[in-house]
Amino acid sequence: MRHARLSILGVLLPTLLFALPAAQTERGPYARIAVLRPHDGATVDFEAGYIRHLKWHEQAKDPWVWYGWTVWAGDRQRWFVYATFGHSAASLDNPVSPAEDEHDNISNVTPHVEFVGNSVYEYLPALSRVSSGNSDGAPQPTPRLELMTVDLLPGSAKGFETALASHQPSLQGETLWYRRIAGGAVPRYVCLRPRPSLSAILDEKTDHPLPDTTNALLAKTTVEILTLRPTMSYGLLPAHP
To answer: pLDDT (tens digit, 0 to 9) for every residue of the chain, 241 residues total?
Structure first.
């Protein structure tokens, strides 16, 4: 019996070892977006600790791509937003070495910040306008990013998405819509608009991602401008020209 069990294990183990990396890299519509607030006076220590933590991801050969932004304009100025995009549910179920990741995170990041949000969103391609080569909702890693957060009145989600779908053909630059599915109050949507500069954002005042037909459906809308932090990101490829 013991030999039989060892034989079965010998067959299954390579299969399981192959299946785990495949699950980690499986593509899908889900994104994880989280927010950190550095303690007063601890920004330098936080950034140094976060960069050390990304070194752990590199050493662990993490296949995920992690974006890191600092809020430049908004009530959350200097807060840090990090995100990963284009995952299947199976991928989110199988991060690389979660226990070791948490241990390193506690050592390098946790002492310097407050964790203030961690949500899972679903990318909505029918409502979005993407750049060449973008098929799963990962934004271009441009120097600036406009982040719009939209909270709706209860029962308004269907009408809101219908209005955005009608408005989609008029969008000009990359505009990515996501629906929150876990991690906070719903219905909430976020819109990411990556741009090469602040002036590119400001010059697009007439190219608004929200049509007027949504006004009666909105409970609260917040627009922030984020700055990409390449040294606090992991695995990013250059933006498409």
So the answer is: 445 444 544 555 455 444 456 666 788 999 999 999 999 999 999 999 999 999 999 999 999 999 999 999 999 999 999 999 999 999 999 999 999 999 999 999 999 999 999 999 999 999 999 876 666 789 999 999 999 999 999 999 999 999 999 999 999 899 999 999 999 999 999 999 999 999 999 987 777 899 999 999 999 999 999 999 999 999 998 766 5
H helix runs in the chain, sequence order: 2-25, 43-59, 89-93, 98-108, 157-167, 198-202
The answer to whether the bond into 187 is cis (omega within 30° of 0) is yes
Architecture of domain 26-232: 2-Layer Sandwich (3.30)
pTM for the full predicted model: 0.88
